[in-house]
What does this fold into?
Amino acid sequence: MKLLRKMFLVYSAFIVILFTNIVRVNACDKMLKQNFINLQSQSKIGINAFTLSIDATGYTVEADIQSDAGISKVQLPTWTSKNGQDDIQWYTVQVDANNHIKYHVDIRNHNYEDGEYITHLYVTDQTGRRIGKAYPPVQMKKTPMTIKNAQITSIDATGYTIEADIQSDYGVNKVQLPTWTSRNGQDDIRWYTVQADANNHIKYHIDIKNHNYEDGEYITHLYVTDQAGRKAGKVFAPTQIKRTPLAIKNVQIASIDATGYTIEADIQSDYGITKVQLPTWTSKNGQDDIQWYTVPV
It folds into this structure.
């Protein structure tokens, strides 16, 4: 009987201790929950996101971010629907003093693809919490590249001048002017690489000295590649080049004295003089004393 009484007393004490600890644990848990609720009420994070504008080069996104704890990182993962996320870019954006962001998504970073673009906005605050926002898909349509005002502006004995205006929202990458004469096919073809100016205007003089000074029909094409990899071409009308003849005029012996005599002449050539010679000899004994004088021009 005494043994049962002792066991009852020990069991009662155990129950009291266990109940006391449960009360303490519940009180601690309640305190932690209350502190978490207070922390949530003190530190808020939110996003008010919107798309600002769309143009041929891309689109601009903006957002107002609310966070009492301060912003640690803002990212704009962006990709096109074509081929999944093979072109995804994670843009890191700076927040201004008003917790406002503004960023232009450039399609050149996405292979200049047209079609549907997808952008998300992810914000991390100083406490490590994250919040996200998905922008509505943006439809991008590439504007066509065009060649305008392509013309031959002048023709003279030395060749002709090509001009053209190139319109591309993505910038000009390469301009080429393959040129050849009709004589003997394309044996004299030259691929001239031309630089476009700040207004995407080109001007280039085709010099016949690069085509063996041939006369007759000259053919020129215009090939343009823009930064998006698109190509455009233009075929110019054949150009007729007629070489002017080489002429020597006003040939005279200007003076004679005891030491010899002076020769003068005017030479006409649109292509430049490479050599002038004056072979001279006496009648006596044939040409046994011939001299080939080379004269500087």
About this structure: The first strand starts at residue 45 and ends at 55. Confidence is low (pLDDT under 50) at residues 13-42.
